[in-house]
Design goal:
This protein is mainly α. The chain folds into two domains: 142 residues, Serine Threonine Protein Phosphatase 5, Tetratricopeptide repeat (Alpha Horseshoe); 106 residues, Tetratricopeptide repeat domain (Serine Threonine Protein Phosphatase 5, Tetratricopeptide repeat, Alpha Horseshoe), CATH 1.25.40. Helices cover 73% and strands 0% of the residues. The longest helix is centred in the last third of the chain and has 16 residues. It starts with 23 loop residues before the first helix and ends with a helix.
Length: 264
């Protein structure tokens, strides 16, 4: 099953609705938030655009517009919205730089994304999201050791984010540090037992150090978390075959084929 790595990144949350004021920009802003809650990002983006037309200095409307444009994969437009936030409200620039970094990472512009996350961290060194996202971009850019350093700083600030442990595990695994990566994936699934990808990669790490039974159990947990996870079913089949459990392996491969055939 295809997984989007970008979807696991951390964005600044939407602004809360306004109750105190009563002007047209606020009405559009509040409508946008309600539409976001419905998952209607296109409609919400239009509402935020109307809010900015009514009040061009409404930096949170620009911020929310940028977030919706991110969701709509309109990355260049989202960057323009976040740049508006920075020009209007420097005190919120740390969040806007983080979100600019996300848009740049989604475009594959990892060096520029890293620069954006550094801008965010220069303003707010305790911005866990920026440390996490910087680590991801460093990982994608092939700077593995530096990515682990970023993940470690994110973990120092907040050890409860499962995706940080997951990406640290990926970085360690890519360096061949399989046992350390297993420990990182363990932390990810301890925090979020339904984290199917973390279970799958834990299984791969265990398989690489010939812990076949433990790998099978990890792949099984991945398929429990996501029964349509074709890669995990396939990996389980490979390990079952290696363990001499041939019929179980065939069953797993059948499920991998069935899950993959249902993909859009």
């Amino acid at each position: 099953m295809k997984r989007s790595v970008v979807s696991l990144l951390l964005i600044t949350t939407l602004a809360l609705p306004s109750f105190a004021q009563s002007n047209m920009a606020d009405y559009w802003m509040n409508k946008g938030i309600a539409l976001d809650n419905l998952g209607d990002y296109q409609g919400a983006a239009e509402a935020y655009r109307n809010a900015t037309r009514e009040n061009p200095s409404a930096y949170m409307a620009w911020n929310n517009l940028g977030l919706d444009l991110l969701n709509l994969e309109m990355y260049n437009e989202s960057i323009e919205a976040f740049e508006k936030v920075i020009s209007i409200e420097p005190d919120f620039a740390w969040a806007a730089w983080n979100n600019i970094g996300l848009a740049l990472a989604a475009l594959g512009s990892y060096p520029q994304a890293i620069d954006a996350f550094n801008q965010s961290l220069e303003i707010n060194p305790k911005n866990v999201k920026a440390w996490n996202n910087k680590g991801f971009s460093l990982l994608r850019f092939g700077q593995i050791v530096e990515s682990i350093e970023s993940f470690d700083e994110a973990i120092r600030l907040d050890p409860t984010i499962s995706t940080t442990w997951y990406y640290k595990g990926l970085a360690l695994l890519s360096l061949g540090n399989s046992r350390e990566s297993v420990a990182a994936f363990d932390n990810a699934v301890r925090i979020d037992p339904s984290f199917a990808m973390a279970w799958n990669y834990k299984g791969l790490a265990l398989a690489s150090i010939n812990q076949t039974q433990e790998a099978i159990e990890a792949f099984e947990n991945a398929t429990i978390a996501d029964p349509n996870y074709s890669e995990a079913w396939n990996n389980m089949g490979l390990m079952l075959n290696a363990a001499g459990r041939y019929q179980d392996a065939v069953d797993a491969f059948d499920k991998a084929i069935a899950a993959n055939s249902t993909m859009p």
